[in-house]
Write a structure and sequence with these properties.
- The complex is a heterotrimer.
- By secondary structure, chain A is an all-alpha fold.
- Chain A has a single domain, classed as MetI-like fold (Orthogonal Bundle), CATH 1.10.3720.10.
- Chain A has ten helices and no strands.
- The relative contact order of chain A is 0.12.
- Chain B contains seven helices and ten strands.
- Chain B is about 40% helix and about 20% strand.
- Chain B has a six-stranded mixed β-sheet with strand order 6-7-8-3-9-10, with helices on both faces. In chain B, strands 2-1-4-5 form a four-stranded antiparallel β-sheet, with helices on one face.
- The model of chain B has no long low-confidence stretch (mean pLDDT about 85).
- By secondary structure, chain B is an alpha/beta fold.
- The radius of gyration of chain C is 23 Å and the shape is globular.
- Chain C contains ten helices and no strands.
- Chain C is mainly alpha-helical.
- Chain C is about 75% helix and about 0% strand.
- Chain C has two domains: about 35 residues; about 200 residues, MetI-like fold (Orthogonal Bundle), CATH 1.10.3720.
- The N terminus of chain C is likely disordered.
- Classes of the chains: A mainly alpha, B alpha/beta, C mainly alpha.
- At the A-C interface, helix 1, helix 4, helix 5, helix 7 and helix 8 of A face helix 1, helix 4, helix 5, helix 8 and helix 9 of C.
């Protein structure tokens, strides 16, 4: 029993509540109910954001942040998938790596940032490393669980058609595990941004987290909030892009997103 | 009681004009997608018609209510309540005192032959037992009309037969009005005093047959020629619809 | 039921099973100890396990771990409690009332990818450098999983349960309280499990960033003074507390959901 009239309203409808909140914000500021010290007016924040974008100042920071998060995530995804599947298919690998993962699991990864900074210096490398470590776990877990539960029937069917073990891995196990990996990567995406911002708060010379922290420190609230909103928009866009890419490349799987 | 319901957004039902009198046992049978469950939900007040009117004892139906009790095929029992708890659920609404509630619960447990299972949880019961509880919990609220949505559809043939006999026995004893939806022609003919055959896409009433013979308690219906004849007639009627749909390329 | 590709274990006794699980970790720790003792890794960065453990025992023993632990814990739990009190009813409201869903779902969807810790400077400005800003941030961060899980749980209650109750005369309020809530509880509790982990994590991170007191602050300070052993010991405490909280929450699940059979 479908109600088709809601389809065009969909994207529009989801923006409306946001607009309502923004409008309420602006109204409250304009009416004086919201003092500047507490929260700058929306218009001020918008102006600050326009200035940051217009002057191009925000772009090197954006690039720095995205590069760190992106690299860390990419490393984690590649290593994580390989490791997870290997652990699922080979006892030895599992035995070797499981203890390490179990040990790391309960440690909140942002808490490792100072350690990594001592170890690998305060530059990008330490940040990328800790992001990679933080993103590794959800990906490995997803790949592991996915590869473990590959339907036996699929494997027998492939083997019976003379597929070698190596090709089996590549042509059967990996595709069958992709849906679960996809979900793990989505989690890792969110984690990468969290660890990125934490690390940039703690020690950084550039990046969006650095901007937020330094603007906040000198009381330039409108610029700080501008960057926060900018960051939120980037995070939202990345998540949506990821889901869209998933739908394109994995149209064969029904995603309930 | 008169029910004259209309079509819904996707034309699930069209031009339904049906009136059911007190104490009738009306069965509704038809192929999948003919809207028989939709019709039941309309009567139950869970759905609103897009056109036409539904009347219960002369007054329009505005929503669900205890005078029209419903038994579903599945998920009818709350998993966190015991058998007794499920049966007692509707009674608390009426502000019945605990002692009175217990009495009614016990009475209905006896009615469906589930003595000794009062403290069991639904997951501990077989499908047939769960449906007994479902019937008991609905009857406990003393509805004037009993709506049943393929209540025995998920059960095996033996259990289905047993519960059909049980239901007939209960109906004879308390004589309520029953609106019973099923896809099983035999069930429809065995239970109904009037059998409504529906066609699919759009859902509409094809024909209404009246059972003109009495079913005695414990009778072996297969041996009754009148039953067999009626069953064949209804079966052919339903099959026509199924074949028509299939030849029109509509997946069923 | 799908069959698994993993070969069966066939462990004869439970002791052997436990050994098999913890032995590899023990081996890893042993390797760590050896590697640091042999000087292959800078012991300034990675102290030997034994020294970390000794320091940890010492800190527990002289009670100096107690105050930071207490601070971190009560912040995390307070924020969590607030988030449950606000988030669960809100999520359930969203799941049952179209208007609430329409309004709040996009807001939460949009704010979800933003790391709420980006709001630390803002919260510090509003709520000061000490407890309140941290608790408020924990509250905000925990709100999300609680709302989302409660929302999906309440929304996913089969209409048949609701109709069954309505057809027996239950008022909308009763339907909510006696049908929707129990059915949604499983999902709500999954949200609680996630939120527990988040609460501790955010507590530690806020302490690392904005100081004050607590385990995060202790750890950062230890690093600043080059006292790596204390830093690791604090890290150990954080991990243990996190694991313990999660275990407790999991164990309590059985109490609240004893009737739950997986999927209804």
């Amino acid at each position: 029993m479908t109600t088709p009239r809601r389809t065009w309203l969909g994207p529009l409808a989801s923006v409306a509540p946001l607009l309502i909140v923004l409008a309420a914000w602006q109204l409250a500021s304009a009416a004086g109910a919201l003092p500047k010290a507490v929260l700058p007016a929306l218009t001020d924040v918008a102006k600050a954001l326009a200035a940051l974008i217009g002057s191009g100042e925000i772009f090197p920071h954006t690039l720095a942040s995205l590069a760190r998060a992106g690299t860390g995530l990419a490393v984690a995804v590649v290593v994580g998938i390989a490791l997870g599947i290997a652990m699922a298919r080979m006892r030895v690998v599992r035995l070797a790596f499981e203890p390490f993962l179990l040990l790391i699991y309960p440690v909140p990864k942002p808490a490792l940032i100072p350690l990594f900074m001592i170890w690998l210096g305060i530059g990008d490398f330490s940040k990328i490393a800790v992001i990679a470590l933080g993103c590794l776990l959800p990906v490995v877990t997803a790949a592991f669980n996915g590869a473990r539960s590959v339907d036996e029937v699929l494997l027998w069917s492939a083997r019976a058609r003379g597929v070698s073990e190596r090709r089996l891995l590549w042509r059967v196990v990996l595709p069958a595990t992709l849906p679960q990996i996809a979900t793990g990567v989505r989690t890792a995406l969110a984690i990468s941004i969290i660890i990125l911002v934490s690390s940039e708060f703690l020690s950084s010379q550039e990046g969006l987290g650095y901007l937020i922290s330094s603007y906040g420190g000198v009381g330039a609230d409108d610029s700080m909030l501008a960057v926060v909103i900018y960051l939120a928009a980037i995070g939202y866009a990345l998540d949506r892009l990821y889901l869209a890419a998933l739908r394109r490349f994995m149209s064969w799987h029904a995603f309930a997103h | 009681m008169r029910y004259g319901a209309g079509a819904n957004a996707v034309t699930a039902l069209e031009r339904i004009d049906l009136s059911v009198d007190r104490n009738e046992f009306v069965t509704i049978v038809g192929p999948s997608g003919c809207g028989k469950s939709t019709l039941l939900y309309l009567v139950g007040g869970f759905l609103a018609p897009s056109a036409g009117e539904l009347l219960f004892e002369g007054a329009p139906i505005r929503g669900p209510g205890p005078e029209r009790g419903i038994v579903f095929q599945r998920y009818s029992l709350f998993p966190w309540l015991t058998v007794a708890g499920n049966i007692a659920f509707g009674l608390e609404e009426r502000g019945m005192r605990a002692a009175e509630r217990e009495r009614v619960v016990a009475e209905h447990i006896r009615l469906v032959h589930l003595e000794g299972f009062a403290d069991r949880y639904p997951r501990e019961l077989s499908g047939g037992m769960q449906q007994r509880v479902a019937i008991a919990q609905t009857l406990a609220c003393q509805p004037a009309v009993l709506l049943m949505d393929e209540p025995f559809g998920a059960l095996d043939a033996q259990t289905r037969r047993i519960l059909q006999d049980e239901l007939r026995r209960i109906w004879r004893r308390d004589t309520k009005t029953v609106l019973f939806v099923t896809h099983d022609v035999e069930e429809a003919v065995a239970l109904g005093t009037r059998i409504v055959v529906m066609a699919a896409r759009p859902g509409r009433i094809k024909e209404i047959a009246t059972r003109d013979f009495e079913v005695r308690e414990g009778e072996e219906l297969e041996a009754n020629p009148a039953f067999v004849a009626l069953k064949l007639r209804i079966w052919r009627s339903v099959k026509e619809e199924v074949d028509a749909a299939r030849s029109a390329g509509i997946p069923l | 039921m799908r069959s698994r590709t993993e070969p069966s274990q066939g462990e004869p006794s439970r002791a052997a099973g436990a050994l098999a699980r913890y032995l590899p970790i023990g081996v890893l720790l042993l390797a760590w100890e050896l590697v640091t003792r042999l000087g292959w890794v800078n012991p300034f960065v990675f102290p030997p396990v034994s020294e970390i453990l000794l320091r940890w025992i010492a800190l527990i023993g002289d009670g100096s771990m107690f105050t930071p632990l207490k601070d971190t814990l009560w912040r995390a739990l307070t924020g969590l409690a607030g988030a449950i009190a606000v988030g669960v009813p809100l999520g359930i409201l969203m799941g049952r009332q179209r208007w609430a869903e329409w309004f709040f779902e996009p807001l939460f969807s949009f704010a979800f990818p933003l790391p709420k810790i980006a709001l630390i400077p803002l919260f510090v400005q509003w709520f000061g450098l000490f407890d309140l800003s941290k608790v408020m941030l924990i509250f905000t961060d925990c709100l999300f999983p609680l709302v989302v899980f409660s929302y999906h749980g309440a929304k996913g209650v089969s209409p048949i349960y609701v109709w069954s109750a309505q057809a027996r005369g239950a008022s909308p309020w009763r339907v909510l309280r006696r049908v929707v809530l129990p059915m949604a509880l499983a999902s709500v509790y999954d949200g609680v499990l996630v939120a527990v982990v988040v609460a501790l994590l955010v507590a530690v991170v806020t302490e690392m960033v904005s100081g004050g007191s607590g385990l995060g602050q202790t750890m950062i300070r230890a690093y600043r003074y080059g006292d790596v052993r204390t830093a690791f010991a604090t890290l150990l405490t954080i991990s243990l507390i996190g694991a313990a909280l999660y275990r407790v929450a999991q164990a309590l699940r059985g109490r609240f959901l004893s009737w739950h059979v997986g999927e209804a």
